Amino acid sequence: MESKKNEEEEEHGTEKLEFEASEIEYVSYGGEHHLPLVMSLVDQELSEPYSIFTYRYFVYLWPQLSFLAFHRGKCVGTVVCKMGEHRNTFRGYIAMLVVIKPYRGRGIATELVTRSIQVMMESGCEEVTLEAEVTNKGALALYGRLGFIRAKRLFRYYLNGVDAFRLKLLFPRQDLHPLADKDDGHGHTDHIPSERCCELH
Amino acid sequence: MEGQAAGEAVMDVSLPEGNSITSGENTVWADISPLLDAACRDLEDGELIHGENFNLFAAMSALEIMDPKMDSGIVCKYYSVNEAIENGAAPVPISLDKSVDVRCTIDIMDHLLACEATWHKGHSLAQTVFSCIYLLRPERTSSHALLHSFCRVMRATCKAVVSVVSDARTHEEEDLFTMTYGLPLNGDDDKCLTMLNAVEETTCRQLRACKAPSSKKRVIEDIEPLQTNLELEEGYCRALLCRLRFRKHFYHVLACLRRPQGRGLELARKHIASCISELECALSSSEFLRSVAFGTYDDQIEDKTTASGCEPIGFDASLNCRLSAPTPPRAIKILSWKKAVEYFIKLLHDLDVICSYSLDPSLESVLHFVVQFQKSQPDLVARAHLQRLLVQDGKLYGQDPVFAVITRAAALPEATKNHDIQKNEFIVQLGQLVLNLLKILCTNSAWKRRKLGKIIQDWRVIYLQLELAFKKEFGENASVSNDENVCVKIFQHILLWVEEQTYWIASQFLILGFELELYSPSEYCMVYWYIYVVSIKLAEKTHLKTAVTCGTGKRKGKKKRDCLKDVARDYRIPPAVLFLQCQICLAEGLTMMLAALRNEHMMFQSLNIFNTEHERFIQHFDLLQKACIPDHASYPSFNESTNYARLSNLVMYNYFKDAQRIAKEVKSSFSNDPDKLAELRRLEQVAEHNNVALNVICRVGVGDPSLKVSFEFNHHPYFATAVVKRS
Ligand SMILES: CC(C)(COP(=O)(O)OP(=O)(O)OC[C@H]1O[C@@H](n2cnc3c(N)ncnc32)[C@H](O)[C@@H]1OP(=O)(O)O)[C@@H](O)C(=O)NCCC(=O)NCCS
């Protein structure tokens, strides 16, 4: 938490970059040449590295759900997702989202996830989920604005003892009957197992 | 990726020579190197051969060997406990210099306390307490009485704590806690206290000896001093004594709490008091220990794991890496000794609260006690003890059968508790639900809310089943025999009570969302609306139940005159219901205020990119909606009641004023219930502040863009107060 505060100070401090929103270019994951970019970005923000298997698991199975943001050829942000059947619902899952510090607060992350969510919706997902640390104010605000609710709190989800929120975004349905049983427990293999997921600071 | 899986390939390859595992029927050993080579040449960069069960979990569990961040094996200093011992990592004695030996022993004791607290706080036993090499090899310390007796009581204590936590099974998300695989926890527990007592006795005499005036010294000369530096003798003796005694009393506390039917609670309280005073002694010994260690008393040791500030000897957390967790274990931070002492003092206070509970057989009182207890946010160990006390052998406190508890809660006459109806399968199931509810209420808030959400459905279903059984058995006709009459009454009472209980669970579920911070301000409006509709139902059922109770009371041969008085009193609303009504007014007031602010565009303009408030409503209240709690509560009805809210109307009909009035009125009825009184005072404050805020907003002018309204929880944990500011 402390480190996050410092981070925020930095953000609002001197090292802000001058650029136009239109200078940012968004591209869908395009193959092995993008992998090192995604990895190094996530690694920078992670306390613990994901193995290369984890990255490939996502980007090979759902390349259409991963996006990268470039500024003058430099990769400055990325989102990595998956989707699949989970207890009778087809749902999307946002696994990693990172924007490097000098580029934060300019809507890049919002644009990245919006693109992923759009694809998920068009692919027939009924809902989108993810976990975020309860202390991650930035991410919580960002997802809150997109319509995610905090569906549950996961007790000491991360090994550092911090709780997580399971965030969920439900897409509208044509028929407004009560939803089918889509209750989910915590600790199923559908999402990134505890401790190691989304521990992005 | 899945398409590229090069699954089974059959190749004819020769058997390698001299393999030790023999092949079975229909199977032969084959060298697959050529196959792998061939496959590798075929693979593009980034491709992977995998089985069908390769999933995210498998991908995430993969380790990159020799990467120090992932491969926990290579960060170990020693490969085995034996190797560590051979390298002198845990010498016995710790030092040949007796003075140093004592000092180091105390450090070990302190670090163990820090480890123990860290364990209780949710880390694995293997990586905390059992990072102590001395604990891992019980027989090695036998020549060192102090260390040996301490290690034994440590192991016995851990075992007792593991046992209460696994019995309670509140640890669904805390199972790291009870993982003891491979740890030497099975010693002879009973003897550990005998040894500890003997060591304590010796230290006590050593302390007496060093304090005795020199004239008497001769008499007790036969006592060998604790260590060699006579100036430090008293300080060391004292420091040791409080540590040994804390261990003894703590072990007693656990043993007393384990006694059936709460029989040891009184004695436990005495030991708890002793534990706390020994911990205080330990705290004050730290000055002495620090000055011995560093020559000066300096305050730079806040984050040290020992009172002296020295590193303890004989610990290596990496030795147990392989035992501790399925994922690559990371270095964990052991709490500081000071924090550990604080933790134990809090734990002991929590246990003391449990011990001082009167074991009231009324379910309502139990529920109230547990909810109240949870407000102090007790940790796992205290919660597990509470749960074990409440539910033993399928009975409340191990003594009151569930059916008796239910009949009492349902306001049935005492004699009903033996009625045969308790064998009815749905009544039996209901009993299970009650016990289950008690257990759930003892878990951590996050888990508790999830479980409460799930059992609402069960309570609803059991209600319907009981109702059906009731109708089937007695039909609609009223001409029933006397015994059937009793059954009818039992059913009616129980049905009513089940409904009340269900609404109570629903309201707990909703309220817990605030504690867990699950609601964002833009959702408060719908949440308060839901609390409002559920509370109305709860109040209705409570009112009915109270009326029915009076009915039962009257029948018990009361004089006519009393009866008349009862009737007169019945016209008044019972205090419990008024109490609920006060909350209802607040919930309704907040709903309307939030709705009005939204309707008049003063806050919460949501983006609605991917969904709308409707979806968020469904998601938050899905579990209640599925169980029809309450009937007809739906998004359209929420909309209907909030869409036309305007601030001007709110000032005319002010719910907060009603709440304030009721709170004032009902206070006198709770003059001997401090919890309820405190709650009423909080409700009153919320009402008062919101009333003022509402008036300010209206006076200053609706639509003034410089006016900023926000909601805070500074007077009540879940009823918000509006804060108005000018920007
Ligand atoms: C979270 C993160 C991806 C946001 O990136 P970003 O590009 O700055 O986000 P955006 O600019 O799209 O922010 C959109 C909204 O989110 C909110 N937000 C973002 N960062 C915030 C912060 N530090 N504090 C408060 N709100 C914040 C704001 O409401 C913002 O809208 P606004 O600028 O109009 O007020 C970025 O901070 C990051 O990489 N953090 C570390 C990794 C991480 O935590 N990932 C999420 C894991 S679940």
TrEMBL record, chain A:
Record keywords, A-Z: Acyltransferase, Transferase
Presence of the UniProt keyword Transport in the record: no
Domain N-acetyltransferase: start-end pairs: 22-172
Domain of life (superkingdom): Eukaryota
GO molecular function terms listed in the Swiss-Prot or TrEMBL record: protein-N-terminal amino-acid acetyltransferase activity
Signal peptide: none
Name of a matching Pfam family: Acetyltransf_1
GO cellular component: NatC complex
PROSITE patterns associated with the record: GNAT
InterPro entries according to UniProt: Acyl_CoA_acyltransferase, GNAT_dom, NAA30-like
Assigned protein family: Belongs to the acetyltransferase family. MAK3 subfamily.
PANTHER family noted in UniProt: N-ALPHA-ACETYLTRANSFERASE 30 (PTHR45896)
Protein name as it appears in the record: N-acetyltransferase domain-containing protein
UniProt organism field: Rhamnella rubrinervis
Automatic annotation (TrEMBL), chain B:
InterPro entries the UniProt entry points to: NAA35-like_N (IPR057983), Naa35_N (IPR007244), TPR_NAA35 (IPR057982)
Domain NAA35-like TPR repeats: 354-722
Keyword DNA damage set for record: no
Subcellular localization: Cytoplasm
Keywords, in A-Z order: Cytoplasm
Entry-linked Pfam families: Mak10, TPR_NAA35
Segments forming domain NAA35-like N-terminal: 46-185
Domain of life: Eukaryota
Single GO cellular component term: NatC complex
The UniProt record lists the keyword Cytoplasm: yes
Main location: cytoplasm
Family membership noted in the UniProt record: Belongs to the MAK10 family.
Protein's UniProt name: N-alpha-acetyltransferase 35, NatC auxiliary subunit
Native organism taxonomy: Eukaryota, Viridiplantae, Streptophyta, Embryophyta, Tracheophyta
